[in-house]
Aminoacyl-histidine dipeptidase (Meishania litoralis), 486 residues
Amino acid sequence: MDKDIGQLRPKAVWKNFANLNKVPRPSKKEERVITFMMDFGRSLNLETIKDKVGNVVICKPATKGMEGRKTTVLQSHLDMVHQKNSDTDFDFETQGIQMRVEGDWVKAEGTTLGADNGLGVAAIMALLESDDIPHPAIEALFTIDEETGMTGAMGLQGDVLKGEILLNLDTEEDDEVDIGCAGGLDITAVKPYNEKPVPRGIKAYWVNVKGLHGGHSGIDIHRGFGNANKIMNRLLYLASNEFNARIAEIDGGSLRNAIPRESVAHIVVDKSRTTEFEEQLSIWANVVKEELSVTEPDLEIQLTQAPVPKKVIGLGTQEKLLKSLYAAHNGVYAMSASITDLVETSNNIARVLVKDGTITVGCLTRSSVDSAKLDLAHSLRSIFELAGMDVTFSGNYPGWNPDPNSPILEVLKAKYKSLFHESPKVVACHAGLECGILGQNYPKMDMISFGPTIKGAHSPDERVSISSVQKFWKFLLAVLEDIPEK
């Protein structure tokens, strides 16, 4: 499979992407990929440093005749989202990503691909090792932990970089040039509970919700995809109200920046009502599947017999949990009033874990308007606190305010039009980019973001267009050749 990847063009980019994907690189566990990048820079005899938090910077002098151009920062993040299908046997801690070519797409075998942001990293690596591509002086900035807190960008000190222009290579539509993004805030609600004895005369079940698209909780939040945690809560709420079902465990979703694709619950129901319950849950499941038939054609809701658990949640705690999750907003909260079709504010109920006497609910709230982000966050806090949970905010990062008069934007627009005979879409996105954070310590740096077309990011359906990578590479090289004079 990697042999097929090696035959793709531009070869230098795909070679480096394949090499990068051999290195396990989950967020907050980037030690191996940091070492990989440090070794790469040193092998080229280029100045290579690691800052205090683990970001890697590799500096390359300008090519002949380009010495008078502005120093340019090329930036991508090293970590990737780790998601896999439930039936895929894969260890992200030890294995490299297994890839395949399918038509115009490169995909992974049952896992996330790492094109977000591995293609950006690979393109920068190809530039660093090239000896025939004209470019200004380059500072290649490889940040860590972008996907789970952006702590790499937050920790980058203001004296590390000298560049005047920053090209962020982390957007996912090849006809777009990004000049702004949303900020984000992690919300965590926790409640300990006393486990109660299992009632007598019961039958135990597994309830499984699976087969959903999942996807990026910023880029895909407006697409109407199902949220496994909300679907599961809907079913359990009905089962609790009508059949006095009791919950032993819930395990739904995983990462905050991924729309949850799967959830499983362990419940019990009185034996005298099991036939009626099984029939009714099938009816409820069919209603949900019909509602989501267009956006989620592969949704499965399964009910199977399970071993009898040792304990269940107390009725009062269970009622408050189910009602709070029902009330908590999920999905698009507000659209931008200033930018057409841009999601302004949203929330993703990303994680629900009920196990061993502790309830944990994790959300990611995003907005391009900081006050709106906090407003929705306080609404969620209020709901969960009314349910008796302790709520904390963390990982707060700012949005990137659009600058339609950016000088580097004019360069990119002109170059795109000359290459592809149409104008690019100048947009802001609802995802989190590191530009807003980096701009806090580098307020005078002119920033822009672009990249190849990537679909299904943050899910095992992630794929990157081969022809789009070729287009992106051509565009990147042309932009570097046109960087303005100092």
Remarks:
- The first strand starts at residue 47 and ends at 50.
- The two ends are 45 Å apart (CA to CA).
- The domain at 185-397 is CATH 3.30.70.360 (Alpha-Beta Plaits).
- The first helix runs from residue 2 to 6.
